[in-house]
Amino acid sequence: MKFRYSLYLLACFSATTYANDSYELDKLSVTATKVQRATKEVSQSLAVVDSKEIDDKNIINISEALNTTAGVNVESSSNSSSAKLIIRGAGLKARFGVREIMVIKDGVPMTDPDSFTRFDFIDMQDVEAIEVQKGPGSILSSNATGGVIQLITKSVFDEGKDRIKLGFGTYGSSLANLRVSKALDEHNYIAINASKTKNDNSWRDNNEVESKQVSLKYGYLFDDEATFESELSYTKSDMQLPTSMTKDEFEEFEKSGKQEDTSSPWQHNARNSEILFFNTKYEKKVGNITYKPRFYFNTWEHFHPVTAMINDSDDNSVYGIDLELNYEHKLFSNSAMLVAGVTAKQDVSKNSKKYTYKDYTTTAGIKVDIDKTLSDAKGELANKEDSTSTLYGAYLQESFAPTNKSLVDISLRVDKVKFDVDGTEYLKYNWSGLPFGGKGTYYEGDGEYSIDETYTLFSPKLGVSYALSANTNIYASIASANQAPTDSELKTNRVENKGVLKKTRSINYEIGLKNRSKDYLFDMAIFQNDVKDEVTATKEGYTTYYQNAGKTQKRGFEFSGQYNFNKNFSLGASYTYSKFKFKEFLEDGTQNRSGNYLPYIPKNQYALFATFNYLGFKSRVQTRTWGSYYMDNANTQKYEGYKFVTDLMLGYERKNHSIQLNINNIFDKHYAMSVSKDINSDITYSVAAPRTAMLTYTYKF
């Protein structure tokens, strides 16, 4: 029993099965439908990043894990956990963090009720596999139309993952990780994981990153094969956020590979956080019913200087519970599974404050704009606020096989999300730069305010998969979901007098083909996603406000495949074609954007990779290309994107020892990860890292 449970998670994400000098990739999904089945039998587009790929890439942040995944746009301008993450256009509106995408770790939601996710307290050194489910309609996702990212960490019952890992690299980068696990007896298991990462990122100003993380896991195996697991983790993350650049400054970066002394006034942006996270879950089978209750809690605080204001919040708590049961039964004389559950989550922030910047210089002359901040020291109290976001819902899914070759999933999820915000604005920033109210750069705010909004969200789905042969499945699905605006978007629109936002409705139609053979595999998907009242962002200088676009249509094609010449050598590729357009959109109430393409999303995006393993030597090379895209909703100008940004890994393994060199952006391309243009025609560039390298040593025990 001990052996079976200790390898349970690894079996669910088995990487390779060798046969006659060929191998077959046969990854299993245990999360997409909450029913374990092969990925080719899941009736939606799905990607799995397994443990071998995670180790080969030496993944430190989520962008490195998903930057070659079809249908996913992800980059990190700060070379840290702060990533811009988009799945099929969802998440585009986010100014920071991740929106419209549900992130789950070991079955526990990491995403707040308003769809906001922080990756700073995810220790990627503890992650065993990552599953990406694309599109709306999953019973896992509440208030998230983009899809689901499921992080599977190393199981407390798996004693085969203990290691010491040390790494050192360019620009002051370093990595240390220790995992120790032990079976105290046949019932009790513990595991400790500790990580520290640091990166000076000295190729540009204000970009130092450091993170310290430690977690303790406990597991108990009952005699009746029921399991109990708990995890307690602590994270301290200090992350400086670099400024964007003007066109002239970007051209200088293209020549030198350095970003220094930009013209941006906001030189001291950062997000420094401390997070304590706890979750516990129990699983027990009684007859044909398996019970899976979960409870989780985290408390966090952060110091977050941003544009014009310094956020200081030290009393934030998130509580959640999920009660799930699985009922095995017969339907059409075949095995079937009914999954049902109720869930609730609440995010409470008390006495959250905003301060003015204390130290800065101002522009000479009539205007009184801040020219540059000199430090992140707090000035006067500008705002204080209490907020509560509450989500509760229920889900139901029936999975059955009408014939021996077909599988059907029918599901429905209903959630209600409520935002309750009360605050007082004492001071606001003087964006006009003209003398007003005697306050100079800051002047009198609007006083007390409150937001009380409730949205009901529906997520139905019908999916069918049919086996054309033993190796090939075809599938079709139709799914829908609602997306509520976030509390920060509601607050921003209140300040800018832009009106109350409606919830979004997304309907996705998809067909696909999946093949798993001895020597090759591929996934293809064609989809059309019709969105009504999509919340879009309009940028005006340093401010961003939001409004509902009448209709948006997103059409796309995705392909990913791999060919294994033998057990040593493989080639792979992914390709994404995106045609995402506004069908009805009157920006700012006056500018007709109907027929325009969504900004930032390239029409063409592709990646290639090759792996070679022989007698302990291992290597991986991958390259990725983003095509051109429009910078703004008006489609006035394009950024050419980038071509063939290439990463290389070389390594050697012998018994318990491993040494590995990873070089990212090996040809030292100097490019922008994102370019945007506001309605005043001002262009800003956020650049990606130049060539970086890290050498790591790992001892497994």
UniProtKB/TrEMBL annotation:
GO terms for molecular function: siderophore uptake transmembrane transporter activity. It comes from the Bacteria. SUPFAM superfamilies: Porins. It is a multi-pass membrane protein. It is found in: Cell outer membrane. Belongs to the TonB-dependent receptor family. This is TonB-dependent receptor. The lineage of its organism: Bacteria, Pseudomonadati, Campylobacterota, Epsilonproteobacteria, Campylobacterales.
